[in-house]
Amino acid sequence: MIIVLKPQATEADANEILAKIAELGLKPLYMPGIERTVLGALGDERILRQLHLDSYPMVNDIKPILSPYKLVSRELQAHDSVVAIDDVKIGGGNFTVVAGPCSVESQDQLFGVADMIKSHGVPLLRGGAYKPRTSPYSFQGLGEEGLKLLRAAKAQYQLPTVSEIIDPNDAELMAEYIDCYQIGARNMQNFRLLEAVGKQQKPVLLKRGMSATIEELLLAAEYIINAGNANVILCERGIRTFETATRNTLDLNAVAYLKEKTHLPVLVDPSHGTGVKSLINPLSRAAAAVGADGIIVEAHLNPKEALSDGHQALTEEDFAKLMADIKPFVSAAGKVLR
Ligand code: PEP
Ligand code: MN
C-alpha cells in the first residue's frame, strides 16, 4: 500500500504512522520527496485496514500497489535508481559498458583483456571465477584464485569488477575481491542465493533466467531488495524459444517493458543473448536504441584458446568497432557512453 502524506506533514507524523505499520507486522517504508512524503506498507494489505489510515489528518491518499512486485515497482518509486559499482554509475543517463572474458583463465589472459577494454574507455571488467557449466566435464572456473586475479586486475587497471556467485556461502569471501555480484541465468530463482546477496552491501547484477518471465525476474529482484540490498541491476540475456539459429532469443521487448515498470537500471547481454559473434554489434546498437542502461559483453584476445564461450568472444578488432558503432545510438537515446 502507498500512503501519500499532505505537504505539511512532519517527520513526526510520518514516524507515528510507520510505527503503527511495523506494529502490525508489515514492512514500513519511508520515502521523503521534495514536495511530499510517501510511505509504504508491504505485506498482507488486508491487515492495514485495521489502522483506518484515512482518518489520519495528515494522510492525503492511500493507494494499493497493483503489481505483485512492490519495491522494484515504479508505482513505489517513479524516478530511476542509479546503482554504483564502486565509483561507476549504472543508470541515470549513462550507457555503461561492462566487458571481459567469460571465465578468468590466467593473469596473462585477464590482464590482456583488461588492458584492451581500458584503452577503449570501458569502466568495468567482467570475468567468471565460478562458472556454472552445463557439463560437469567443462572448465568450472579458477575459484578463489580467479577472484584474486580480478582484484589484481582492478588494482592494475582501475577497473571495478563483476563476477558470478553460485554459492550463498561465498558471498562474504567474494565481497573481499570483487565490486559487483552477478547472479547468472541458471540461478535467477535460487532464492537462498538471492537472500545471501541481499544481505550484502555490494551491488548485484541479476540476469534473467533463460525461461523466466519478466514478472519472475522482477520478483527475483524483489527478494534481493527485500533482504536489504537495494543495489540491483537487471540484465536481459536472452531467453529460450523455438528458434535454434541463435543460442537464445534476445528479448528486447523485455528491456522496454522493464524500463516502464521498474526504476532499476537494465543492462543487455548480447553475447549470451545471441551466442553469435557477428550479431553482438547490431544487438548492442539495438539495446542502446531501445533504452537499455548499458551492455555486458564477452571479449578475449585469443578466442580460439578460451576455456568457455570462445565462439562468442569479441576480439580487439571487433571490440574497437563495437565501441565506435554504438556511439551514435547511445547519443540518439540521450545517454552518455561510459
Ligand atoms: C556469463 O555471464 O558468463 C553467464 C554464464 O551468463 P548467463 O548466466 O546469462 O548464462
Ligand atoms: Mn559466458
Description of the molecule:
The chain has 338 residues and is of the alpha/beta class. The protein folds into 2 domains: 2-63, Phospho-2-dehydro-3-deoxyheptonate aldolase, domain 1 (Alpha-Beta Plaits), CATH 3.30.70.1140; 83-337, TIM Barrel. Helix content is 34%, strand content 19%. The chain is built from 11 helices and 15 strands. Strands 7, 8, 9, 10, 11, 12, 13, 14 and 15 form a 9-stranded parallel β-sheet that branches. A 4-stranded antiparallel β-sheet has the order 2-3-1-4, with helices on one face. Strands 5-6 form a two-stranded antiparallel ribbon. A hairpin with a 2-residue loop joins strand 5 (83-85) and strand 6 (88-90). Helix 10 runs parallel beside helix 11. The two termini are 37 Å apart. Bound molecules: phosphoenolpyruvate and manganese (II) ion (MN). Manganese (II) ion binds at residues 102, 272, 298, 308-309.
Give short descriptive properties of this protein.
nine-stranded parallel beta sheet; TIM Barrel; binds manganese (II) ion; alpha/beta; four-stranded antiparallel beta sheet; Alpha-Beta Plaits; about 350 residues; 2 domains; binds phosphoenolpyruvate
